[in-house]
Amino acid sequence: MIGYILRRLLYGLLILIGVNLFTFILFFAVNTPDDMARLSIGGQRVSADAIEKWKVERGYDKPLFVNMAQPGVKKYTDTIFYQRSLPLLTFDFGSSDAGRDIGREIKARMGPSLALAIPTFVLGLAASVAFSLMLVFFRTTRLDFWGVVLCVFMLSISGLFYIIAGQWLFAKLLRLVPYSGFAWGWDAVKFLALPVLVALVSRLGPEARFYRSLFLEEIGKDYVRTARSKGLSERVVLFRHVLRNAMLPILTGTVSALPLLFMGSLIAESFFGIPGLGSYTIDAISGQDFSVVRAMVFLGAALYIVGLILADISYTLADPRVRFE
After folding, report:
1. What would the pLDDT profile of 80-97 be if each residue is shown by its tens digit?
2. Has domain 105-318 been given CATH number 1.10.3720.10?
C-alpha cells in the first residue's frame, strides 16, 4: 500500500511538471509577452516603447529558457522560465501582474470558497443519494416515473437559469436574502443560503439520475437475491448491501472532488459576489492577469491529483476486496 502511494505521488509529480511546462509554453511561447502587453494595455496600436516598458515592469523582457547575454549559470537562471515557472513547483506563486502577492490572496480567499463549497458538497451528496434511494425503493411506481422525469427536466436546464431565477424569486420578489455579498459569522448564513440552495437544485437532477442507475444495477445481482431470500426487508437490503456495494463509483466522483472544493465555484462566486478563489480566477481572466491564471491552473492540477490519490486509497475502506500489490 505504501509503495503504491509513493508510485502515485511520483506519477503526480511528473504530471505537475508536465502541466507546468505546458502552461508555460501556452502562456509565453504561443501567447508571447508582446501579445500579453497588447491585451493588458488594450488595443493593437500600442507603441513599442509601451510594450517594452510593460514587459520590463513584470520581468517578461528576459529570454524564455536560455539567456545568452549572461555568463555561467545565469544563462539559465536569468530567464522567464526559471523565475516565473519553476517556483510553482514549490508552490511559490509569486506576484500578480498588478504587483499583489498571489499566495496571500489565495489564503485570504480560501475561506469564503470553503464556506460555500463544503455545505454545497455535503448537502448535495446527501440529497442526491437519498432521493435516488427513494426512487429505487419505489421503483416501477408512479413516484419513480415522475422522479426520473423531474431529474431529466432539471439536468436539461442551465445552471445560470437557476441562479437568475433564484435571485429574482428569493432576493427581489420575496426579499428573503440579499442579492450578493459575503460576511463572516452568523451573517454568512443569509449570504450563503441562496447560493447553496441553487447549487443543490442544479446538481440534484444529474447526480440523482446517475446514482439511481448505479443502485438499480446492484439490485439485479445475486447477492441481493440471496439477501432477500434470507428474509431481509427491502429497506435493509438497500441501505446495508446495495448502498455499500455501490460506494466505489460514488467515491470516484466525491473523494476526487474534495480538493477541488478549495478552488471555489467560478460562476456562483461571480454572480453572488463571494470573494473566493473562483471569483478571483474570473477577475484575473477578465483583467488579463496571466500570472494569477497560471497559478490557479497549476493549483487546480495539484489538487486534482491529490483527489485521485485519495479516491484510490478510499477504495480499500469501502471494499475490503480491493488490495494494492
Report:
1. 888 888 888 888 888 887
2. yes
